[in-house]
Specification:
Blueprint: E1 2-6, H1 13-16, E2 24-28, H2 42-53, E3 61-65, E4 68-72, H3 76-97, E5 107-112, H4 115-126, E6 135-138, E7 143-147, H5 153-167, H6 173-182, E8 186-189, E9 192-195, H7 200-210, H8 216-221, H9 224-229, H10 235-248, H11 252-261, H12 270-277, H13 282-294
Helix pairs in contact: 3-5, 5-6, 6-10, 7-10
The protein binds zinc ion.
The site of zinc ion (ZN) has 4 residues, from α5 and α6.
């Protein structure tokens, strides 16, 4: 089922005047390959879009790309392309390997075409000033705000988080951010999503050479507060390249599922990590992992 609404409105007369701008609403239904059905119906999405539509400024087009709604001010063809080629692509592949449940909210993904409109509309629509030039999730509004001119990497990163929240309650920050940041730079390999080395490598390699990277026990036991607020600059990189290492060994997907299943007994993931790696001596593993990371290159 595909439906497109272009500049057509069936609501009350008063609101009709506001509809004299290009508005495209399209629902692109996923192939029934995913067993889990979405928790939101077509009617839920239509209702959501009807409310959303009232706040969408001129020059934006709207696409339902389940389980998200995508709003952008590039040309409608471009917004649609991003909805399909980036968002649908990433969602399908992430679901294939990791996630059964859709996010628990309908999240709006705002794709601003440039820095100017990103900052402008963050303020005008949400009363918010972005603290990052790339994009972020605004929990209060269930909205992802993206400066899409900086690329799609942050978008995929931010798409991972609501899926982790829905599928892995209590997932510690190190793994939530490790997995999300792994796919900041990603592609497809043998039909699966695949993370490549990226800009986080250099800082991590420097820290490894300085001997300042924490043990994996310390990393995995970090509270959310410590992970974000007491980060000496390596938490994201260490988590990402641990995930990258697991990916390269072909055990990342297995680790995710075993960790998720064992989360009550092993809330930090440390025991499951040792088990999946098949190692007892994590100091020795860290030395091996560090030499592995030092051997990586980017670009
Ligand atoms: Zn993140």
């Amino acid at each position: 089922l595909v439906f497109i609404v272009t500049g057509i409105y069936t609501g009350c007369e008063k609101e009709k005047a506001q509809m004299m701008r290009p508005l495209i609403i399209e629902a692109i239904h996923a192939q029934p390959a995913v067993i889990d059905t979405t928790e939101f119906s077509d009617a839920d999405f239509m209702q959501h879009v009807a409310v959303l539509e009232k706040q969408v400024p001129d020059g934006f087009s709207v696409f339902v790309q389940k389980p998200f709604v995508v709003i952008g001010n590039e040309s409608p063809a471009y917004v649609k392309m991003r909805a399909e080629k980036t968002i649908k692509w990433a969602v399908d592949l992430l679901k294939k390997d990791y996630f059964k449940r859709d996010p628990t909210d309908i999240i709006d993904i705002w794709l601003f075409k440039d820095k100017h409109t990103y900052y402008r509309y963050a303020q005008e629509l949400f009363g918010d000033t972005p603290s990052t030039p790339y994009g972020y999730y605004l929990e209060s509004d269930k909205a992802l705000l993206m400066n899409i001119s900086t690329g799609g990497g942050t978008l995929v990163h931010e798409i991972v988080h609501p899926f982790v929240r829905a599928n892995f309650p209590g997932c510690p920050s190190w793994f939530d951010e490790g997995l999300a940041s792994l796919y900041e730079q990603c592609g497809e390999k043998d039909g699966h999503i695949y993370g490549y080395t990226n800009w986080r490598l250099e800082g991590l390699q420097d820290a490894i050479r300085k001997g300042s990277v924490p043990s994996f026990l310390d990393l995995t036991e970090m509270s959310t507060y410590d992970f974000y607020m007491k980060d000496k600059g390596t938490n994201y990189g260490q988590s990402r390249y641990l995930c990258y290492y697991l990916q390269e060994k072909g055990i990342l997907v297995r680790f995710y599922h075993e960790f998720r299943e064992q989360r009550a007994e092993d809330p930090t993931g440390y025991k499951t990590l040792k088990k999946v790696l098949g190692v007892d001596d994590m100091d020795e593993f860290k030395r091996e992992w560090e030499s592995f990371v030092l051997g990586l290159t980017f670009p």
